[in-house]
């Protein structure tokens, strides 16, 4: 493969390079001889989704007639838009799952993600008394079928309570049996402690998840503190405490990480408490990462409570302070949202936001992360990269009777150009 007239993200945008790859090794990297007027391409690290639900995509947009193999979910469209309604509708949807339905929607998600430049992801699949292991078996098929394109890390996920309610014990048993029976296919144990009916049971959920992940040598992923209630308990604190008590850093391989997803409550903490928490994480040398999902978190959290009646009473946007918590922006297009949320307009900000959907995301979920600069040294093993192509001119419809109307296209020559004005990408964008 030859890539000609490309711009490299870590070098001057004035420099243009020709790369030649053979036998999966970067053989040569030389200054280009291409005409300086020819449009260049910019070569970037590929994207990573550290938080994707493989059993849930396109539930409300399946757009086909219901059948025994492919159910219709359109009757579950939100009416109130509340968090409770979302959880209840998800439970109803799970009752309709079929193997064919899960595979179709999952394959559409993987194909679309790859089309957008994603080459790795953590995929959550819910396992409980309703679904059994059906979503997990679909995920294993998808992981195998897409293995040449996307590195899929499967997370066995407990969305429902595993200690409270009448089905808690059954849900817990379903997860534990799956970890035994599909040990070679499951990379991560995930749990949602806030769905338990009491804080005591939430802490039991956390303790169980940590013990079980250690037993199976798995990564650990919590959906946690998904609220903006400053008076509510902060469950990250028992997570940090119990990781220390169970000696995570001594008993688990260093490649295994702990992720806390959503955690919108984090934005309500006083600065002093935030600093104390960060100090405790550093002192224990915990491989702990926060993964924010601003688009979904803004949708779920940025709404009036039952006591609020006007838009002006809406709570402040989640993650208003915590740029370092963001790991998943879904696509470069969300960089525009990031710029607004954090008033992040500098070149360094753009590079940070892009790393949150690429290198930092991979680091958070414990995937090997060869540095971009090391990857582009002659003799290095070639890995997939994201190629953003430029065009020279844009054509638009002219006035009747007038000649073609062409405008010089704006050239994307750095990460900031991609983050602030995301391009269209296609299956050809990932080069490998």
UniProtKB/TrEMBL annotation:
Q: Which residues form a coiled coil?
A: none
For this protein, the record's SUPFAM superfamilies field holds:
Metallo-dependent hydrolases
Which PANTHER family would you find in this protein's record? CYTOSINE DEAMINASE
- According to UniProt, the name of this protein is Cytosine deaminase
Q: Which species? A: Apiospora phragmitis
